[in-house]
Design brief:
By secondary structure, this protein is of the alpha+beta class. It contains eight helices and 13 strands. The strands form two sheets. Strands 1, 2, 3, 4, 5, 6, 7, 12 and 13 form a nine-stranded mixed β-sheet that branches. It starts with a strand and ends with a strand. Substrate binds at residues 206-209, 229-232.
Length: 311
């Protein structure tokens, strides 16, 4: 019997026990467990890796704790600009959206781009128009409002700075908020999906690595599936997700070796902070980060669910 497996992340950065109340910590653990087990249940019933990553990321987008979908951060204009991407490891097909507004589940719109258009990446108003055509759900601005995110935005505006998500009152503001999933189904196929609200107080329609295939999201049955979370500019410059795949394909590294080399050496040397999740067709999982923490969870076959937050 082929293995099935799924791994998820909900952002990385300055995540320390001292900065999370017990109540908030429990909420994160529960949200991560619920999402990863939902995706695993799809796989256990014979569902595809593509369906599992989409539904898992939708679950995280609907949770206000994470910087994606409903919980997204505010832009400089006080709006929400959402990015997402999805990729099928069996076919190499991919879909992505960037800078979309009021889309309840950007990952579903990205999947529609992959399945119902001849394109890979749609942006802004055009992507929204396409979303209306294919019938994805839109929500009013109030749906995306969160008091904590609003306070982050006001603080960033006062400093005229762009902030990575997850503020820490006694430490630099470092939470690299994105959500993502990678999955392996019983047919031996891989898929990856990633979604984000980007940076607090971002200007000029800034787009990070999440919707860029090969930078923040990548899947190939011959190598691995990867979803990244971090300071997007560094992940784009290093083409992180594809680099992990290349190290497996061309250098023969294990998935763990490839992830460690990219995240702990190459990214660190450039000043890039964050992490990634990766999975191969053997069901081997890597949850790798160079920050103080990363919201993460995984489940393989009938093994116990793993959930982690801190280093």
């Amino acid at each position: 019997m082929n293995p099935i497996a799924i791994a998820i992340h909900g952002g990385a950065g300055t995540i320390l026990r001292a900065l999370l109340t017990e109540e908030k910590e429990r909420a994160y653990y529960q949200a991560l467990q619920d999402a990863v087990e939902k995706g695993h249940q799809i796989l256990a019933k014979g569902g595809s890796a593509l369906k599992a990553v989409e539904e898992t990321v939708r679950e995280l987008e609907d949770c206000i704790l994470f910087n994606a979908g409903r919980g997204s951060v505010f832009t400089h204009q006080g709006e929400h600009e959402l990015d997402a991407a999805i990729m099928c490891g069996a076919t190499g097909m991919a879909g992505a959206v960037a800078g979309v507004r009021r889309v309840r589940n950007p990952i579903t719109l990205a999947k529609a781009v992959m399945q119902h258009s001849e394109h890979v990446l749609l942006t802004g108003e055009g992507a929204e128009n396409f979303g209306h055509q294919v019938g994805v759900a839109f929500e009013p601005e109030e749906y995306f409002f969160d008091a904590f995110r609003y306070e982050q935005w006001q603080a960033a505006k006062a400093e005229d700075s762009i902030k990575l998500d997850h503020s820490a009152p006694i430490l630099p503001d470092k939470k690299l908020g994105t959500v993502g999933a990678v999955a392996l189904d019983a047919a031996g196929n891989l898929a990856a999906a990633t979604s984000t609200g980007g940076m607090t107080n971002k200007k000029f329609n800034r787009v990070g690595d999440t919707p860029i295939i090969g930078a923040g999201t990548y899947a190939n049955n011959a190598t691995c599936a990867v979803s990244c979370t971090g300071h997007g500019e560094y992940f784009m410059r290093a083409v992180v997700a594809y680099d992990v795949s290349c190290l497996v394909e061309y250098k023969g590294l294990t998935i763990t070796e490839a992830c460690l080399y990219v995240v702990q050496e190459k990214l660190k040397k450039q000043g890039g902070e964050g992490g990634l999740i990766a999975l191969n067709t053997k069901g081997e999982i890597a949850l790798t980060f160079n920050s103080e923490g990363m919201y993460r969870a995984s489940k393989r076959n009938d093994e116990p669910t793993y959930v982690g937050i801190y280093e």
